[in-house]
Design a protein that fits this description.
globular, Sua5-like_dom, Translation factor Sua5
């Protein structure tokens, strides 16, 4: 059964964040809030955890396009090819925020991402994922939680989310109701930024 932790963004309790980090280091899966929708996350360097994440999404890991959640842009060089000044400036002007940026991947990607030519980088404007990544010491892999409902695309109620994913994840962070609009996906691999999916982020 998933453990529900009530953590609020205004004053996240360090001991609860530490519990989340311990779970990630032990290969556990978490559900956490962001500046857009609730999401599933795991340790990006734990291949078994990544496989579990793919199973929940009913896809093969090698086909998965999980975002990499960072707390700032300092991890970029670990996962992406060198980027030019204008692209970096563009990123800096829009993070943290409700955007996922597609960038060219380098050859040092974690095992689960090997062979990927591009990678999605996200820096949510939300204290909880930022604190988790900071305490963990490296980014987490992530995917949005979608709803089966035809009207509401994304689940917003953490209690209902916990009920649905009770036997699939280790921790559900209840931070109150989430949003139901996902991040805006922007492809920065070309000469000009290209919006792949219009979401919450506005230019």
């Amino acid at each position: 059964m998933a453990k529900i932790l009530k953590i609020y963004p205004e004053n996240p309790q360090e001991n609860l964040i530490a519990e989340v980090v311990k779970t990630l280091n032990n290969g556990g899966l978490i559900i956490y809030p962001s500046d857009t929708v609730y999401a599933l996350g795991c340790n990006i360097f734990d291949i078994r955890a990544m496989e579990k994440l793919a199973q929940i999404k009913k896809i093969k890991l090698e086909k998965a396009q999980f975002s990499i959640i960072c707390n700032d842009l300092s991890h970029l060089s670990e996962f992406t090819r060198p980027i030019d000044t204008s692209t970096f400036r563009y990123l800096k002007n829009n993070v943290p925020g409700p955007f996922t940026f597609i960038l060219e991947a380098n050859k040092s990607l974690p095992l689960a991402y090997k062979g990927n030519k591009t990678v999605g980088i996200r820096v949510p404007d939300h204290s909880i994922p930022q604190m988790i990544v900071a305490k963990l010491g490296h980014p987490i892999a992530s995917t949005s939680i979608k709803d089966d409902d035809e009207v509401i695309e994304y689940s917003t109620d953490p209690e209902l989310i916990a009920e649905k994913y009770d036997h699939l994840v280790d921790i559900v962070i209840d931070s109150g109701y989430g949003d139901n609009v996902a991040s805006t996906i922007v492809d920065l691999t070309g000469s000009e930024p290209e919006i792949i999916r219009q979401g919450k982020g506005e230019f």
